[in-house]
Structure prediction request, 489 residues.
Amino acid sequence: MKKSNQTSSILLLFLYLATEASAAATPSQIEKGFKAVNDPSSAPFETLLTDPTTVVSFGFLQVNSTHLDLAVIHLPSGQPLWRANPANPARLSASVSLSFNGSLVLSDDKTGVLWSTTTATGDVVILLNSSNLQIVKFDELEPVLWQSFDHPSDTIVQDQNFTSTAALHSTNQLYSMSLGSNYLALFMEFGPGVKSPMYWKHTAMEAKNQIIQGKGPIYAQVDSFGFLGLYQKENAPVDVLPFDSFNREIPGFRRLTLEADGNLKSYYWNDTVWVTDYVAISNLCDLPNPCGAYGVCRTGQSQCSCLDNRTDGCLPPESGNLCLSRENFWVLRRKGVDLTNKDLLPFQKVQSLEECEGLCEQNCSCWGAIYSNASGFCYQMDYPVQTVTGIGDENKIGYFKVGDQESENEGESGRRKVKALVAVGVVLAAAGVGFGTYRIWITRRRGRIDGKNGSMVQGLASGPYKNLKTNSFRSIELSDSFGKNEGMR
Ligand SMILES: *[C@@H]1O[C@H](CO)[C@@H](O)[C@H](O)[C@H]1NC(C)=O
Ligand SMILES: *[C@@H]1O[C@H](CO)[C@@H](O)[C@H](O)[C@H]1NC(C)=O
Ligand SMILES: *[C@@H]1O[C@H](CO)[C@@H](O)[C@H](O)[C@H]1NC(C)=O
Ligand SMILES: *[C@@H]1O[C@H](CO)[C@@H](O)[C@H](O)[C@H]1NC(C)=O
Ligand SMILES: *[C@@H]1O[C@H](CO)[C@@H](O)[C@H](O)[C@H]1NC(C)=O
Ligand SMILES: *[C@@H]1O[C@H](CO)[C@@H](O)[C@H](O)[C@H]1NC(C)=O
Ligand SMILES: *[C@@H]1O[C@H](CO)[C@@H](O)[C@H](O)[C@H]1NC(C)=O
Ligand SMILES: *[C@@H]1O[C@H](CO)[C@@H](O)[C@H](O)[C@H]1NC(C)=O
Prediction:
């Protein structure tokens, strides 16, 4: 009886595959000489290999209907569990193919090899029901030459070892997760030249087992009993991070995913939906960038606004590093703001707000600082300004640099230039000075203009004189733009 059941479900499966994936039958393994050409007009996921229990499948995955990647997906939900090349997917095109010649190779007839496992001597590719895609060599003591479990993308699944040599990256590549010597942490990613700041850290409790120096790095594993374990030695967790389903016997598939908003969440599949049973950051405003760059997230109200009180969208995000670009900047100040990750940032004890701002101002790897008047601590952000949290406490004062990209085209930077000129006009009018004095002053300030009341500093790169001559007083009449910018008073 069991057998006939199986037969009918296999029949059903074949029907499903034939209709859904336009594959007559998916092989249980991929052998040497295999080649599959992508069909851009096919379903969003084209199956190439399915595990024996038909829980997961490996194949071509269309991304945004413009790009293509290799992926292992959870069949009942369609959820990708692994991606080959998420940071740099191929263009969706009929010239993209996957072949296996000992190495799994994704290539484009036009541009060559896009991705490869570089395992010259593999015999077959198999997919386990754990979702682990493996390249195996026959007759070897160590038959597994390569496995997708060692190269996670944004997700780890039950029983997958997450080691200190691996990292998770959110699909948008803005966040990462990795292990330290005794902790698991989440980081923001800004690309080359900017150190990745940590925004969440879980240190091993070492309640039952200690981490022993020199006994190797720790690794993490999602356990079927509903927890994330940190281990140095098998079966001896140095930490247990329990999920809501802790100690409940849940047969469903489990995954831990670093989401595109920077949160880390654990799920199990209940046969219908993915049930969330762990959330690392439960408060929206504690996420790294919930309101975008130069945004303010107000705790409790879950509401976004802008540091400069603009209502037509906040300042555009900065990327990169002021040291490398030698860019000028202007400054935005705001009372009653804080950073949720400030305990993970470098800080110094200073005597005054001015000292705190001075530290940041003179340091081109500093994008902003929060000064706490109560404690005298000065927290420096060595990464581009993201969302800060709005708090009632006016004793916390934020100082934020805004890059001043000199650009000829209109639009965002054009608008900012207008503001710059308004600021200049205000300074000039207030001081009652002429251009001559102004020029000497601006030269001394190396291209920076300091608003006297300290609420806004506007920098101008080389050549402001020309702009002033042609535009400044016309700009002052743009009272609309001026009115919006309360910061200039
Ligand atoms: C897909 O779309 C999302 C949001 O629309 C975007 O952030 C992402 O960069 C796109 N990915 C690719 C590969 O184009
Ligand atoms: C497999 O194909 C790739 C791409 O064409 C090539 O670089 C590699 O040398 C081949 N490997 C073997 C073992 O033939
Ligand atoms: C994989 O299959 C084995 C039996 O072969 C089973 O015990 C296990 O629960 C399956 N795992 C998943 C995630 O389905
Ligand atoms: C995870 O690591 C343990 C201990 O090193 C090992 O026994 C186990 O086979 C590994 N699991 C996988 C799926 O690689
Ligand atoms: C799974 O969860 C959904 C939503 O909570 C629920 O409606 C459904 O009944 C659950 N399915 C099972 C099999 O428990
Ligand atoms: C500049 O700031 C970075 C990060 O806050 C810090 O590591 C570095 O030591 C600072 N440099 C100087 C010269 O103070
Ligand atoms: C900082 O605190 C001192 C004393 O507690 C107070 O006099 C001063 O006004 C505060 N400064 C700011 C900027 O809030
Ligand atoms: C923005 O509005 C807040 C609250 O109304 C005020 O305290 C702050 O000074 C304003 N900031 C700027 C830059 O205008």
